[in-house]
Amino acid sequence: MPLENVTSNSQASPLFAVPSSAADRERIDAAMLEAVVTSDAYLTEIASHLIVAGGKRLRPVLSTVAAQIHGAPATDDVVRGGVSCELVHLGSLYHDDVMDEADTRRGVETVNAKWGNLQAILAGDFLLARASGIAASLGTDVAGLLASTIGWLCEGQIEELRYTYDVARTEESYYASIHGKTASLYGTAARIGGIVGRHDLDTIESLTEFGNAFGMVFQIVDDILDATSTEAQLGKPAGHDLVEGVYTLPVLRTLALDSSAADELRDLLGAPLDAAQQDKALSIVRSNEGVASSIETANDYVERAVAACDGFPDTPATAALRSAPGALLASVSVSA
Protein backbone atom coordinates (compact mmCIF):
# COMPACT_ATOMS: atom_id res chain seq x y z
CA MET A 1 0.00 0.00 0.00
CA PRO A 2 1.96 3.05 -1.21
CA LEU A 3 2.16 6.19 0.83
CA GLU A 4 0.10 9.10 -0.51
CA ASN A 5 0.46 11.81 2.09
CA VAL A 6 1.98 12.05 5.53
CA THR A 7 1.52 15.00 7.84
CA SER A 8 1.99 15.54 11.53
CA ASN A 9 -0.97 17.31 13.14
CA SER A 10 -0.34 16.40 16.76
CA GLN A 11 0.10 20.12 17.42
CA ALA A 12 -3.65 20.36 16.67
CA SER A 13 -4.51 17.58 19.12
CA PRO A 14 -7.96 17.74 20.72
CA LEU A 15 -6.09 17.86 24.03
CA PHE A 16 -5.42 21.50 23.16
CA ALA A 17 -9.15 22.18 22.64
CA VAL A 18 -10.13 22.03 26.31
CA PRO A 19 -11.41 25.53 27.24
CA SER A 20 -8.54 26.18 29.66
CA SER A 21 -5.88 24.82 27.30
CA ALA A 22 -4.27 28.10 26.27
CA ALA A 23 -3.94 29.27 29.87
CA ASP A 24 -2.69 25.85 30.97
CA ARG A 25 -0.02 25.86 28.25
CA GLU A 26 1.21 29.23 29.50
CA ARG A 27 1.34 27.88 33.05
CA ILE A 28 3.22 24.79 31.85
CA ASP A 29 5.81 26.81 29.92
CA ALA A 30 6.36 29.15 32.86
CA ALA A 31 6.70 26.25 35.31
CA MET A 32 9.18 24.46 33.05
CA LEU A 33 11.43 27.49 32.74
CA GLU A 34 11.19 28.15 36.47
CA ALA A 35 12.14 24.55 37.23
CA VAL A 36 15.52 24.79 35.50
CA VAL A 37 16.70 28.13 36.84
CA THR A 38 19.87 27.86 38.89
CA SER A 39 22.44 30.25 40.31
CA ASP A 40 24.70 29.21 37.43
CA ALA A 41 23.61 31.05 34.27
CA TYR A 42 25.60 28.65 32.09
CA LEU A 43 23.78 25.58 33.41
CA THR A 44 20.45 27.40 33.22
CA GLU A 45 21.07 28.15 29.54
CA ILE A 46 21.97 24.56 28.73
CA ALA A 47 19.09 23.07 30.75
CA SER A 48 16.55 25.41 29.17
CA HIS A 49 17.84 24.98 25.60
CA LEU A 50 15.16 22.56 24.38
CA ILE A 51 12.46 24.21 26.47
CA VAL A 52 13.06 27.50 24.66
CA ALA A 53 13.19 25.64 21.33
CA GLY A 54 9.54 24.74 21.76
CA GLY A 55 7.62 21.47 21.80
CA LYS A 56 4.06 20.26 22.04
CA ARG A 57 4.14 19.69 25.84
CA LEU A 58 1.76 16.76 25.32
CA ARG A 59 2.69 15.06 28.60
CA PRO A 60 1.93 17.98 30.93
CA VAL A 61 -1.10 18.89 28.83
CA LEU A 62 -2.33 15.33 29.31
CA SER A 63 -1.87 15.71 33.07
CA THR A 64 -3.96 18.87 33.14
CA VAL A 65 -6.71 17.40 30.95
CA ALA A 66 -6.81 14.20 33.03
CA ALA A 67 -7.26 16.29 36.17
CA GLN A 68 -10.23 18.11 34.61
CA ILE A 69 -12.48 15.19 33.65
CA HIS A 70 -14.88 16.03 36.49
CA GLY A 71 -15.00 19.68 35.45
CA ALA A 72 -12.70 21.25 38.06
CA PRO A 73 -9.73 23.27 36.78
CA ALA A 74 -6.21 21.89 36.99
CA THR A 75 -4.37 23.16 40.04
CA ASP A 76 -0.83 24.50 40.06
CA ASP A 77 0.25 21.20 41.62
CA VAL A 78 -1.23 19.31 38.66
CA VAL A 79 0.73 21.55 36.30
CA ARG A 80 3.91 20.92 38.27
CA GLY A 81 3.26 17.18 38.21
CA GLY A 82 2.91 17.25 34.43
CA VAL A 83 6.06 19.33 34.18
CA SER A 84 7.97 16.67 36.12
CA CYS A 85 7.08 14.21 33.35
CA GLU A 86 8.16 16.62 30.64
CA LEU A 87 11.49 17.23 32.35
CA VAL A 88 12.11 13.47 32.42
CA HIS A 89 11.32 13.39 28.72
CA LEU A 90 13.71 16.28 28.02
CA GLY A 91 16.47 14.71 30.10
CA SER A 92 16.09 11.52 28.07
CA LEU A 93 16.36 13.53 24.84
CA TYR A 94 19.63 15.08 26.01
CA HIS A 95 20.99 11.59 26.65
CA ASP A 96 19.52 10.16 23.42
CA ASP A 97 21.18 12.85 21.34
CA VAL A 98 24.54 11.99 22.87
CA MET A 99 24.06 8.30 22.11
CA ASP A 100 22.88 9.04 18.57
CA GLU A 101 25.48 11.76 17.96
CA ALA A 102 22.57 13.89 16.76
CA ASP A 103 23.16 17.42 15.47
CA THR A 104 19.64 18.87 15.48
CA ARG A 105 16.53 18.61 17.61
CA ARG A 106 13.36 20.71 17.24
CA GLY A 107 15.01 22.71 14.50
CA VAL A 108 17.98 23.83 16.62
CA GLU A 109 21.39 22.47 17.48
CA THR A 110 21.35 19.69 20.04
CA VAL A 111 22.96 20.38 23.39
CA ASN A 112 25.77 17.93 22.62
CA ALA A 113 26.44 19.59 19.26
CA LYS A 114 26.51 23.07 20.77
CA TRP A 115 28.19 22.47 24.14
CA GLY A 116 29.61 18.95 24.01
CA ASN A 117 28.72 15.47 25.22
CA LEU A 118 29.83 15.95 28.83
CA GLN A 119 27.66 19.02 29.28
CA ALA A 120 24.71 17.31 27.60
CA ILE A 121 24.95 14.27 29.88
CA LEU A 122 25.21 16.36 33.03
CA ALA A 123 22.40 18.69 31.94
CA GLY A 124 20.22 15.66 31.24
CA ASP A 125 20.98 14.36 34.72
CA PHE A 126 20.12 17.79 36.12
CA LEU A 127 16.72 17.72 34.40
CA LEU A 128 16.01 14.29 35.89
CA ALA A 129 17.01 15.61 39.31
CA ARG A 130 14.71 18.61 39.01
CA ALA A 131 11.86 16.34 37.88
CA SER A 132 12.42 14.11 40.89
CA GLY A 133 12.42 17.10 43.23
CA ILE A 134 9.09 18.30 41.88
CA ALA A 135 7.59 14.82 42.19
CA ALA A 136 8.82 14.52 45.79
CA SER A 137 7.09 17.79 46.66
CA LEU A 138 3.78 16.29 45.49
CA GLY A 139 3.92 13.28 47.80
CA THR A 140 5.34 9.80 48.04
CA ASP A 141 2.91 8.30 45.52
CA VAL A 142 3.99 10.71 42.80
CA ALA A 143 7.67 10.47 43.77
CA GLY A 144 7.63 6.68 43.66
CA LEU A 145 5.72 6.68 40.39
CA LEU A 146 8.18 9.01 38.68
CA ALA A 147 11.14 7.00 39.95
CA SER A 148 9.59 3.82 38.55
CA THR A 149 8.94 5.58 35.24
CA ILE A 150 12.57 6.62 34.88
CA GLY A 151 13.46 2.97 35.44
CA TRP A 152 10.97 1.83 32.79
CA LEU A 153 12.42 4.37 30.37
CA CYS A 154 15.90 2.95 30.90
CA GLU A 155 14.62 -0.61 30.47
CA GLY A 156 12.97 0.35 27.19
CA GLN A 157 16.14 1.97 25.93
CA ILE A 158 18.25 -1.03 26.87
CA GLU A 159 15.80 -3.33 25.12
CA GLU A 160 16.21 -1.26 21.97
CA LEU A 161 19.99 -1.25 22.20
CA ARG A 162 20.11 -5.03 22.63
CA TYR A 163 18.66 -5.48 19.15
CA THR A 164 20.47 -2.74 17.25
CA TYR A 165 21.07 -3.86 13.64
CA ASP A 166 19.32 -7.17 14.38
CA VAL A 167 16.99 -8.13 11.52
CA ALA A 168 15.67 -10.95 13.71
CA ARG A 169 14.29 -8.50 16.26
CA THR A 170 10.82 -9.61 17.37
CA GLU A 171 7.69 -7.50 17.64
CA GLU A 172 7.58 -8.41 21.32
CA SER A 173 10.93 -6.68 21.77
CA TYR A 174 9.64 -3.65 19.88
CA TYR A 175 6.49 -3.36 22.00
CA ALA A 176 8.44 -3.76 25.24
CA SER A 177 10.87 -1.07 24.17
CA ILE A 178 8.33 1.55 23.11
CA HIS A 179 6.20 0.93 26.19
CA GLY A 180 9.19 1.65 28.41
CA LYS A 181 10.66 4.49 26.34
CA THR A 182 7.47 6.33 25.46
CA ALA A 183 4.13 4.94 26.56
CA SER A 184 4.98 4.62 30.25
CA LEU A 185 5.66 8.34 30.48
CA TYR A 186 2.25 9.16 29.00
CA GLY A 187 0.67 6.68 31.39
CA THR A 188 2.47 8.37 34.26
CA ALA A 189 1.44 11.85 33.09
CA ALA A 190 -2.21 10.83 33.01
CA ARG A 191 -1.92 9.03 36.34
CA ILE A 192 -0.33 12.06 37.99
CA GLY A 193 -3.24 14.17 36.74
CA GLY A 194 -5.58 11.72 38.42
CA ILE A 195 -3.61 11.44 41.66
CA VAL A 196 -2.97 15.15 42.15
CA GLY A 197 -6.48 15.92 40.87
CA ARG A 198 -7.78 13.69 43.68
CA HIS A 199 -9.78 11.30 41.53
CA ASP A 200 -10.91 7.92 42.86
CA LEU A 201 -8.68 4.87 42.36
CA ASP A 202 -10.76 3.32 39.56
CA THR A 203 -10.58 6.57 37.60
CA ILE A 204 -6.83 6.83 38.20
CA GLU A 205 -6.34 3.30 36.87
CA SER A 206 -8.44 4.07 33.79
CA LEU A 207 -6.48 7.26 33.16
CA THR A 208 -3.26 5.27 33.40
CA GLU A 209 -4.59 2.74 30.90
CA PHE A 210 -5.56 5.59 28.60
CA GLY A 211 -2.13 7.20 28.83
CA ASN A 212 -0.29 3.95 28.15
CA ALA A 213 -2.43 3.22 25.08
CA PHE A 214 -2.14 6.80 23.84
CA GLY A 215 1.63 6.58 24.23
CA MET A 216 1.74 3.42 22.14
CA VAL A 217 -0.20 5.19 19.39
CA PHE A 218 2.18 8.13 19.66
CA GLN A 219 5.31 6.02 19.22
CA ILE A 220 3.97 3.79 16.45
CA VAL A 221 2.86 6.90 14.55
CA ASP A 222 6.26 8.50 15.17
CA ASP A 223 7.97 5.38 13.83
CA ILE A 224 5.77 5.37 10.73
CA LEU A 225 6.53 9.03 10.12
CA ASP A 226 10.25 8.42 10.53
CA ALA A 227 10.07 5.88 7.72
CA THR A 228 7.78 7.86 5.43
CA SER A 229 8.30 11.61 5.95
CA THR A 230 10.88 14.14 4.86
CA GLU A 231 13.33 15.94 7.14
CA ALA A 232 11.39 19.17 6.60
CA GLN A 233 8.18 17.53 7.80
CA LEU A 234 9.80 15.92 10.83
CA GLY A 235 12.10 18.72 11.96
CA LYS A 236 14.82 16.08 12.32
CA PRO A 237 16.62 13.68 9.94
CA ALA A 238 14.22 11.29 8.18
CA GLY A 239 14.92 7.58 8.24
CA HIS A 240 17.02 8.07 11.35
CA ASP A 241 15.94 4.80 12.96
CA LEU A 242 17.07 2.73 9.98
CA VAL A 243 20.43 4.46 9.92
CA GLU A 244 20.89 3.81 13.64
CA GLY A 245 19.92 0.14 13.25
CA VAL A 246 16.67 0.55 15.18
CA TYR A 247 14.15 -1.58 13.33
CA THR A 248 10.66 -0.36 14.17
CA LEU A 249 7.24 -1.83 13.45
CA PRO A 250 6.93 -0.78 9.77
CA VAL A 251 10.34 -2.31 9.08
CA LEU A 252 9.66 -5.47 11.08
CA ARG A 253 6.33 -5.94 9.30
CA THR A 254 8.03 -5.48 5.93
CA LEU A 255 10.74 -7.99 6.84
CA ALA A 256 8.03 -10.49 7.83
CA LEU A 257 6.51 -10.47 4.35
CA ASP A 258 7.00 -13.57 2.21
CA SER A 259 8.28 -11.59 -0.74
CA SER A 260 11.32 -10.61 -2.72
CA ALA A 261 11.00 -7.09 -1.28
CA ALA A 262 11.43 -8.49 2.22
CA ASP A 263 14.49 -10.45 1.11
CA GLU A 264 15.95 -7.36 -0.52
CA LEU A 265 15.37 -5.29 2.62
CA ARG A 266 16.92 -7.99 4.81
CA ASP A 267 20.02 -8.01 2.61
CA LEU A 268 20.37 -4.24 3.02
CA LEU A 269 19.95 -4.17 6.79
CA GLY A 270 22.08 -5.58 9.58
CA ALA A 271 24.81 -2.95 9.34
CA PRO A 272 25.16 0.84 8.95
CA LEU A 273 23.72 2.22 5.71
CA ASP A 274 25.20 4.68 3.29
CA ALA A 275 22.91 7.29 1.70
CA ALA A 276 22.02 5.16 -1.32
CA GLN A 277 21.25 2.12 0.82
CA GLN A 278 19.13 4.22 3.16
CA ASP A 279 17.07 5.58 0.25
CA LYS A 280 16.59 2.07 -1.12
CA ALA A 281 15.54 0.63 2.25
CA LEU A 282 13.08 3.46 2.84
CA SER A 283 11.65 3.00 -0.63
CA ILE A 284 11.02 -0.69 0.07
CA VAL A 285 9.30 0.04 3.38
CA ARG A 286 7.16 2.79 1.87
CA SER A 287 5.99 0.70 -1.08
CA ASN A 288 4.92 -2.43 0.80
CA GLU A 289 2.30 -3.44 3.35
CA GLY A 290 4.35 -2.79 6.48
CA VAL A 291 3.16 0.81 6.86
CA ALA A 292 -0.53 -0.03 6.44
CA SER A 293 -0.21 -2.99 8.81
CA SER A 294 1.44 -0.75 11.41
CA ILE A 295 -1.41 1.74 11.10
CA GLU A 296 -3.87 -1.07 11.83
CA THR A 297 -1.95 -1.94 15.00
CA ALA A 298 -1.91 1.70 16.05
CA ASN A 299 -5.67 1.75 15.56
CA ASP A 300 -6.00 -1.17 17.99
CA TYR A 301 -4.33 1.01 20.63
CA VAL A 302 -6.61 3.92 19.69
CA GLU A 303 -9.57 1.69 20.50
CA ARG A 304 -8.00 0.68 23.84
CA ALA A 305 -7.47 4.31 24.77
CA VAL A 306 -11.03 5.29 23.89
CA ALA A 307 -12.43 2.31 25.81
CA ALA A 308 -10.51 3.40 28.91
CA CYS A 309 -12.64 6.57 28.96
CA ASP A 310 -15.96 4.69 29.12
CA GLY A 311 -16.59 5.43 32.80
CA PHE A 312 -15.65 9.11 32.69
CA PRO A 313 -18.26 11.87 32.98
CA ASP A 314 -19.42 13.80 29.92
CA THR A 315 -17.16 16.85 30.11
CA PRO A 316 -14.98 18.77 27.62
CA ALA A 317 -11.89 17.11 29.11
CA THR A 318 -13.33 13.64 28.58
CA ALA A 319 -14.29 14.54 25.01
CA ALA A 320 -10.72 15.69 24.41
CA LEU A 321 -9.31 12.43 25.75
CA ARG A 322 -11.65 10.37 23.58
CA SER A 323 -10.74 12.30 20.43
CA ALA A 324 -6.98 12.64 20.92
CA PRO A 325 -5.76 9.12 20.01
CA GLY A 326 -7.71 9.01 16.77
CA ALA A 327 -6.58 12.49 15.80
CA LEU A 328 -2.99 11.44 16.39
CA LEU A 329 -3.38 8.42 14.14
CA ALA A 330 -5.06 10.61 11.50
CA SER A 331 -1.71 12.41 11.15
CA VAL A 332 -0.72 9.48 8.97
CA SER A 333 -2.76 8.93 5.83
CA VAL A 334 -2.28 6.34 3.11
CA SER A 335 -3.95 5.68 -0.19
CA ALA A 336 -6.14 2.62 -0.41
Overview in brief:
The chain is mainly alpha-helical. The protein has helices at 21-35, 41-47, 49-52, 58-67, 76-100, 111-115, 117-137, 140-162, 171-196, 201-228, 231-234, 240-244, 249-255, 260-268, 275-286, 290-308, 316-329, and strands at 3-6, 104-105, 108-109, 332-334. The protein has one domain (10-329): Farnesyl Diphosphate Synthase (Orthogonal Bundle), CATH 1.10.600.
Task: Describe the structure using short key phrases.
336 residues; mainly alpha; Farnesyl Diphosphate Synthase; two-stranded antiparallel ribbon; 17 helices
Account of the 3D structure:
- By secondary structure, the chain is mainly alpha-helical.
- The protein has one domain (10-329): Farnesyl Diphosphate Synthase, CATH 1.10.600.10.
- Helix content is 70%, strand content 3%.
- The protein has 17 helices and four strands.
- It has a two-stranded antiparallel sheet with strand order 1-4.
- Helix 5 runs parallel beside helix 8, helix 5 packs antiparallel against helix 9 (171-196) and helix 9 (171-196) packs across helix 10.
Unreliable stretches (pLDDT < 50, length at least 5) are 1-10
The secondary structure category is: mainly alpha
- The CATH architecture term is Orthogonal Bundle
CATH level 1 class label: Mainly Alpha
Quaternary form: single chain
Strand elements, count? 4
